[in-house]
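writing this on my phone so excuse typos. first protein, seq and then structure
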Amino acid sequence: MRKALLVLVLFVQESDADRVNKLLADKKFTEAVAALTKIIEREPKAAWARVSIGFAWTELKEFDKAAKAFDDAEAIEPANAYLPFNRGRMLAIRGLMDDARRELAKSIDKHPTIFPHWACYWMGVSMISENPEKALIWFEGAREKSPKELEALAYYWRNVGLCHFKQGHWKPAARVYDDGLAKFPDDPWLLQMRALCHLRVGEHDKAREIGRKAEAVLRTKVDHVTEFSLPFRGSWKVVQANGGDETHWGLTAKHAWDFVRVEKGQISKADPKTLEDYFSWDAEVLAPADGVVAVAVDRCDDHLNAPGGDPGEGNHVVIEHAPKEFSAVYHLRKGSVAVKAGQKVKRGDVIGRCGSSGYSLHPHIHYVVCEDARDWICRPSKFSHATVEIPKLGDVVDPVK
């Protein structure tokens, strides 16, 4: 009788976790939060429930709530084996890569049997921007541990290809994207990056053809909660607008602008031969709205009249302003980036200076609003406090107070 009672008690204890795990597996995250909230009210010392609700909040992109849940779990059970991985994953998705690496390293070092392949995978994700070569090693390690599970994930092919792409290895990147497209032929991100590989080797027609296929997932209306100001002072001309045939197509750039500074209607001195001959060079670049820096990269060289071999964005800053609202400014001058990931900024703060790093022929600003700090899927946007709200090709725009 006592043994039967013990079995019954264990079954009741396991049923809560089983029910929650099923909700999470079925991606019913709102229902999981509701169920876990009741469990936490009933069992306030249940650290596992707080870790699980932190995972659900992460999937719902409620990062502050996820962070609090993980902090509460740590206060109850500091050595919880599932905590560092889940917190590290949340930080990586949020774009706070330095903090993510710290937590994921704890998971790998102290709890190597807890999600071993996923810990390696997310460590790779956290390193792509800073060290794509090392990130690739982490992805390869994850694949060795669980090849079937990793290869069945579109994000695996996206990120491995991106490691090659960010090193300027266009052909290896193309092969990875082709392998991914063989499994996921309609994945918009794989299509977008395959198109960019064509672009980097000069196959512009193929690039545009494939890039247009990826555009179907883009939004068609402006519905931001943030008011964005122009990221500069003075008069700047649009040299490539939304939907530009040259490079402004596909997931990352259909809704982007390229701006150059003008003086007396000119973008440079007569017969420009140096970067300094362009009026855009070294001009201050400003935060377009209040927010938190999600990505700040400052390692790419500047160049003139030939696109660099580094990734297209070059030195760049991405700022989170609201859920699914990230502004991104590319091609900053090497050594000029004035902010770090995790830093709060105010509208008008100087975040860097205009340069010509990345896929750039001369100094200019590439500006776009994105949905996600990692994927950079662009969205329609507009400018407040500007002479032109939605600039078109050839427009000259100025900030207005």
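second protein below, same order as before
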Amino acid sequence: MNKNNLIIILIIIIFDFIFSQFFLLDFLNKEKEQIYKEIAENRIHNSEYRYGFKKNATFNTLWKKKIVYEINTNNLGFRDFSNRNLNKKKNYSIIIGDSFVEGVGLTYDNTITGLLNSKLTNEQFSNFEFLNAGVASYSSYIYLKKIKSVLNANKWLKVSSVVVLHDKSDLLDDLAYLKMNKPSEFEIEDRKYENRRKHSFYEDLKNYNFWRFYRKQTMIGLLLDNIGNRIEDFFRNLRDRYKLASKNNKNFFEIKKYQIRAIRSVNSMKGTKKFYYNKKKWNDEGIKSLNFTIENLLELKNYLNARNIKLYVLLYPYSYELLEDTPRLLYLNSVIPKLEENNINYLNAYPKFFIGDLYKNIDNFYIYNDVHYNELGNLLLTDIIFNEIYKREN
């Protein structure tokens, strides 16, 4: 390459950098940065249960940096179909959990509580409804703290039952609260919005991560990054097709598209999956965290019993558990005996997901490349909750 070509390339790089920084990137990222600003203002800290949503708010939020969904909250700070004050004459059932209950990536109507309420007739809904107390990354310690906080602060709230959706990641999250010595209260931090691209601009330079800097801060870099992702995606598809063909003793070309899609969901949340495969980690931390989880659920049960409120715990599968026995059996064989030993009512959603073609079930019931449920997956859970709780209580 001669000197003139090098100069031309250098000019293109400099021009691309200047034009990207002062014009294009801010324009392209304007909508996403506005969403990050809304997140900082509306996902707020709480001294009693660490964090939640701002009350009577409407804001957009992101899942996996690309799926935009709207959240409306009521006067309790729960996700709802609109901003509203709850009817003090109604009876309620509170559904609490983490991102599965919040309904990441979904409209409210497709969340568990949205679907549960859609099963009620107009007459039934005038007297009773389900409430969504879930927020991403909650765990059993926060379920306990939040339910107690909400009920203690709102004596008018008439609740007949609380349903806890126990997530596999709860055991990992609860470890943090154990290490914090079960904090009785949390520091309220002011979440300030910061432009993410500009923040990474300085961080990448400070850490000498020049290739990442170029990919994120220039249009040519973004284009190369996109091309690289597409190439990586192509070869990942070939790899997954080959593995599926070998595993199922089939021809490479017999593998269906939905099976490839299913594998993408199965391969997400690898960190949580490893926790249930590592026997040493399970023996050192898993059992300790499980005992803490049961301790929290038992305290919640006793608190609710004193108020004549029933507690139910719903167990449900991640996508990888449909194909991998080891993490599923370790989880169920550890959790269920503990629940039964402490007389904690539980509902088991696992059998619903094992009817028919497991790969097709994963593709049908889970968000692509994710462990969270889509509308159809949530419908399976709502059928269990509605039939086992609402119909029996009413």
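The longest strand covers residues 158-166. thats all i got for now
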